[in-house]
Design brief:
The structure is a single chain. By secondary structure, this protein is mostly beta strands. It is built from one helix and four strands; from the N terminus they run αββββ. It has one helix spanning about 1-15; strands at about 30, 45-55, 60-65, 75-80. It has a four-stranded antiparallel β-sheet with strand order 1-2-3-4, with helices on one face. Residues about 10-20 have low confidence and may be disordered.
Length: about 90
């Protein structure tokens, strides 16, 4: 599950390279349609929400919340400069 959190953060946070100076189009909360995940239904998370918010110093905060099949909430969070450089993710 941790690898899923990291992959989701990376895919939505920096996969398309550097972001614009004001990432207005990506800000907000996004829900993953878990019914479309390529895994057996019993292995799919119950819910996945990815939230992007503006940080004061021109950086983007990404928070990934996954409710696993057992109902346990898993979190991953990171703050990324808008130049697209890599940053650590905490979970």
């Amino acid at each position: 599950m941790k690898s899923f959190l990291i992959a989701a953060s990376m895919a939505l946070g920096v996969a398309n390279g550097p972001l614009a100076a004001e990432p207005v189009g990506v800000l907000g909360a996004w829900a993953v349609d878990v019914t479309r995940l390529p895994m057996p239904p019993e292995a799919r998370p119950r819910r996945v929400t990815i939230t992007f918010s503006d940080e004061a110093s021109g950086r983007l905060r990404t928070r990934v919340e996954v409710v696993d099949p057992a109902g346990v909430l898993r979190l991953a969070e990171g703050v990324t400069p808008l130049d697209g450089s890599a940053t650590p993710v905490t979970s």
